[in-house]
Specification:
alpha/beta
Length: about 250
């Protein structure tokens, strides 16, 4: 995948991994637009307001972006929330609904909004963002893992359906990355710049891999294949002890 001379929209790109990736595309010479519910914190890139839980907001953002950039040829969808849940408490359902609305349905809404344009254009890219937790759950955040597993399955189906259209579908599978305070709760979180270095190298391969899996994410992505799934899941389950009453 060429990273230069592209026109890129990153939905969920106003902070963290999304903003870091946006700046890498911009540094490579691409035109970059980042979208989010609050884009006021970004002053070095073009922005668009978008709430992926609201179909009308997504449609408005699509019209704004395509009106200004009819040559749009890369869409990255990575809006997401990570919420803890205690499955012994039925009140967790509110967090579960929010997680599905943002992570899974938000991805679907974004892809749906731009797919007709990208197919008509040809030579375009869609990048979805899942998580290592979609392949090896973190029981403290059960619906987060379920939502990301859903995005993985949806991405696989999307790639199959768009085969032959000229639209490439790539899945980015991050491990824990040191953004938004992750470094404080997870000392093993990968530094953002190191993560982005690996991502850019993998994206630049020809052909682009279907899945972008940096070294630190491979033990999660391939745990079941490697026979380490049960052991790692048990270790990750220890975080449940932080829930009240455990």
């Amino acid at each position: 995948m060429e990273l230069n001379n592209r026109t890129v929209l990153i939905v969920g790109g106003t902070s963290g991994i999304g903003l870091g990736l946006a700046r890498r595309f911009a540094a490579a010479g691409s035109t970059v637009i980042v979208g989010g519910r609050d884009a006021s914190t970004v002053d070095d890139l073009e922005t668009v307001t978008i709430d992926v839980t609201d179909a009308d907001s997504v449609a408005r953002a699509r019209d704004v972006v395509l009106g200004a950039h009819p040559d749009l040829d890369v869409v990255v969808t990575m809006s997401g929330v990570m919420l803890m849940e205690d499955l012994r408490d039925p009140a967790h359902a509110e967090a579960a609904e929010t997680t599905i609305a943002v992570n899974l349905l938000g991805t679907i809404r974004t892809v749906d909004a731009f797919t007709p344009h990208l197919v008509a254009r040809g030579g375009a890219e869609i990048i979805t963002v899942t998580s290592g937790i979609g392949f090896l759950p973190f029981p403290l955040m059960p619906t987060y893992g379920a939502s990301k597993a859903g995005v993985h399955a949806y991405t696989e189906a999307l790639r199959a359906q768009l085969a032959g259209t000229g639209v490439t579908v790539t899945e980015l599978i991050p491990p824990a990355v040191a953004t938004a305070g992750q470094e404080k709760v997870n000392p093993a979180a990968l530094p953002l710049d190191a993560f982005l270095d690996e991502v850019v190298d993998l994206l630049s391969q020809d052909p682009t891999p279907n899945e972008i899996v940096v070294q630190a994410a491979r033990r999660l992505r391939w745990a079941e294949r490697d026979g380490t799934y049960a052991e790692l899941l048990e270790a990750r389950s220890q975080a449940l002890n932080t829930l009240p009453g455990r």
